[in-house]
Amino acid sequence: MKRLLGHLLRASACVFVLAVPITAAAQQPAPLPPPTPPPPGSEPPPSPTYPTQDPNPNPPPTYYQAPPPPHLRHRPPPPAYEFVDPEPPTHAPRFSLWTGARLGLLSFSNAFYTNQQGNAETTGNYARPGLSVEADVGARLAKRFLPYLLFEHGFMGQGRRFEGSEASSQSNLYGVGFRYTAFDVDSVGFLTDLSFGFRSITVNGGGESYTMRSLEIFRFGLGAEIRLSTRFVVSPLLSFSTGNMGDTDGSIHFSKAGSGDGLGAPRYQNGQNISNQQGYLMVNLGVGGHFDLLGK
Predict the structure, then answer these.
(1) What is the domain extent for residue 233?
(2) CATH number, position 220
(3) Predicted confidence band at 76 (pLDDT cuts at 50, 70, 90)?
């Protein structure tokens, strides 16, 4: 009995092993036939399209500008902007042709010589304070140095020896000068002026003319050079000088009021040299305006 049962189990196992592959083969679908080619002359069908996903699912918000107010909607457009090069800063040219004039108050003091009575013949006997005009021309070198030529004419007041007459007095100076400007030469600088030349005092009246001459060796001035632009400066200046009248030319007679001490004419005249000289002092307070030309 047991032997018969063992044979039945072995037979059942064999049947199960054979049935599994047959069942699996029966469940597989039949193979599809190959695709048929399209007929000649026809285009292939389009490829299917698939929707793509937006890489930025949260786009930035959109802002809208509010319209301008009604009173600004019809405003004309602004004018076109034109670029203009700025003006170069004011500065003293390094080299230039320097020229200009000076107006001042001119006066003399002390005496010219000793007269016949042994008294000092004061400067006021021949010329009292008056106005002066000076013309200058020179060259500016390295901004600060300035050699120049000068001519000064003084419209002097009438001297005491000629009171009550029509006589007039004048002073002339022909010379050479040198100026130096320290500190800020491009704005306001400290000015030093040194010059020398030939000075003359002349009196004209009653058809006569009388002149005294001197070599004015030393004329020293202190002031300022104020630069208003690259081409123009203003320079107030106080100048001092000394000299001794040595030569004479022509002759003249004193007025009645000027001859109260008994002297009717100068002691030295008609080309005579003044032997007993006394030194005079000149003071000039003025202001000049000068141009720097042809330089940068």
Answers:
(1) 102-293
(2) 2.40.160.20
(3) confident
